[in-house]
Amino acid sequence: MMKDRIFYLIMFTIPLGVLVACFFVYMRAKSPDAPYATFEKKLFRSIEDDTVDKQAYVNNWKDVSTFQPVPFTVLHYKPNIRGHAVNTNDIGYRGTLGYFEMVELSKNIHSEGGKVVVFTGGSAAFGAYSRSDEDCIVGYLNRLAEGAKVKVAVFNFAMGLYTSDQELVALAIWAADLNPDLLIVMDGYNDALRITNEEYTLGAKIPYAYGELRASLGQFTDFPSSGFFARRYDVSADQAQLGEVLRVYGSNLNRMCHFMAGYGNKTILSVQPVRGYRNSCSESVEYAKRIHNIYGSFVRKAREVAEQCSAEFVDLTRVFEGTDDASIFFTDSVHMNSEGQKEVALTLFPVMMNELGLPISLRNYQF
């Protein structure tokens, strides 16, 4: 009798705990302080094409941006979403091809002498908030490759809230099965949030959703206390804390480069553009201003790692430098509209082609 009670208790509490975990994650994604809270204002501003159904566009992105727990990489966008603006596959990455379909397609591309590229980073690399899958960074890179008449496929393994920690894990657990010839990393901003935004000041190597997941699971599991997981930073630009974050960031980039080199393949490291940093945008958000003060340290760290690992480095923080009003390319402090993402793709494409050992000329360098 007692065993039966224990069995039924376990069978009830585990699904309940998972449900609560999803609820906490959902509420964080929708909370007023979260990056995706001001959808209506942000998304309507990001789409200026009058032929687009703006409400459908907003609803599509809102559906995708509900985070779901996944193994290994903690949180992903909601899987299997279909829409005109954005689609996600069966594990939440951007696109309509399921994970094993991507693996199979990569095998076929290699068998035909083609090249496979993996693109990783946070939500800006994912392509938030482009007007379609074809009009995000990865979409543009694929269109440029098609225009150049080369057999190259770029796969999007970027994800909202990814820091370099999750990028490293995702490479080893998910993307490596595609046997990519080239890895392109575009990041920096999410790692910098740890010491600039009060909502994200968890210690390095702690996933941003750790608190919510622990709180929900703690309802039926006793967690031992841990000083490591209790670590929090402040936003006073403390040099010791900045140094710790930079060491972890650099270590993760280094490991991604060495992982690729171990298979005889290459890596491009890049630091993503930020509104108001090295461009003409004004910035009113306080934590974004703090990021400006330290962002050069992330640029230098990525460049340093690239030199140490014989990888290529692209400083994307300069993409909009010299533009009279770079705000036309941004929807918020870090996310770019489709026009901004096009500029990033145009900057990355010739470097990507060079690293793949493929020719490029001005006449086929177009969409």
Mean pLDDT: 85
Shape: globular
> Could you give the count of β-strands?
7
Please, what is the oligomeric state?
single chain
Instruction: Catalogue the unreliable spans.
Output: 1-37
Can you summarize the main beta sheet? Answer: 5 strands, parallel
- Order of strands in the sheet with the most strands? 4-3-5-6-7
Radius of gyration: 21 Å
What is the terminal separation in angstroms? 69 Å
Q: Strand pairing plus helix content: what structural class? A: alpha/beta
> If helices are DSSP runs of H or I spanning 4 or more residues, what is the number of helices?
12
Helical content stands at 40-55%
Name the beta content range. 5-15%
Order of helices and strands: HHHEEHEHHEHEHHHEHEH
Give an overview of the whole structure.
This protein has 367 residues and is an alpha/beta fold. The protein contains 12 helices and 7 strands. The strands form 2 sheets. A 5-stranded parallel sheet has the order 4-3-5-6-7, sandwiched between helices. α11 links the parallel β6 and β7. The N terminus is likely disordered.
List the defining traits of the structure above.
367 residues; alpha/beta; disordered N terminus; five-stranded parallel beta sheet
Write the layout of secondary structure elements.
Layout: H1 2-30, H2 39-46, H3 54-64, E1 68-70, E2 74-76, H4 99-111, E3 115-121, H5 123-126, H6 137-147, E4 152-156, H7 164-173, E5 182-187, H8 189-192, H9 210-217, H10 239-262, E6 266-271, H11 286-308, E7 312-315, H12 338-355
Parallel strand pairs: 3-4, 3-5, 5-6, 6-7
Antiparallel strand pairs: 1-2
